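Q: I have 375 residues here and want to know how they pack in 3D. Can you give me a structure?
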Amino acid sequence: MSATTRIGSSFLCRPPQYLQLPEGFGFEHGQAIRPFTICYETFGELNADRSNAILVCHALSASAHAAGKYTPEDEKPGWWDGMIGYGKAFDLERHFVICVNLVGSCWGTTAPASVNPDTGKPYGSQYPWVTITDMVRAQRLVIEHLGIPRLRCVTGGSLGAMQVLMWAALFPDSVESIIAMAGAAAVPVEGVAWHIIGRKIIESDFHFRGGDYYESSEPLRGLQVARMVGHMTYLSQEALERKFGRRRRHGSSQFEIDSYLEYQGTKFSRAYDANSYVRIQAAMDEMDIEEIYGTLEKAFASYRGKALLISFDSDWLFPPAEVEKVDAALRATGVDSTYMEIVTGNGHDAFLIDFHLITPPVKALFARLEASRGR
């Protein structure tokens, strides 16, 4: 048993680590930043033959801090602590988990808010437009840096799930299994439309100044409202009715949902960077595996690992039908793929909430992997 310090249902984790790239990082659209830093965190222990590594891909606003606490006094653990830990779905008694902060994100990896050494000012509007391929390539650099020849699993939800599928397409021989939740090969047009509206709201904010706003202390109201719009795509009608209905706040004329959205928007804008939000969300919308490869079957033609795809019936950002299309394509190429639609009222956010529902199929997949190795 690991000597790791437990804190309730969580544990003490290592601080973030950084991969320095003195020669820089080249982006898919042709630009490069030199030097470049990639932030990542690891949980658990890598075994002797380096065969127990799991890569967790995070979603838009999350970070590499996927689980655990840095100190016992931390208010909250990492964003997927319900899934990563000792005895949990991604069991740290058996697995070594890595989470890499996305290219373009403001949580440690070189980002728009980072200082350009050539100018002494933040990159701002000069930061390249990123793609999910860029994100996956950066993750692969970390995996190579850690000396891991093949990942036991690549997993994630939402944008994280899109990265998972791109891993299967780009580096099929490097992945033993994939687990994708609440994500598909492309964002459906309804989701793209809401994303575009949010980005236009940010860009229309006078204080945004085309992305070069760092010298101003004015809050970006555009980012606050864009986050409100985005947040609505994560909730289901059932969740909205259950949490808020048409209730008013403390007898006032303000709806509870109004107060909630204002709170979420303000909180988010204080922590997250608008340029990062715009770029990462745009990368999410740009990805279309079918468009890139011609067909999904061609995209996954070389992948021979196992797959677990999970959708949620109340998720309208990535409806079950979109996830089923990926499952059908994987099966058509001979992949051992399991698809599960989970019934829940928590909408798109279910992969961050319904741990009791998603843990059993994840553990079942690892049991199948163990059985395959035994054979």
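Q: Anything worth noting?
A: The mean pLDDT is 96. Residues 191-284 form a domain with the Rna Polymerase Sigma Factor; Chain: A fold (CATH 1.10.1740.110).
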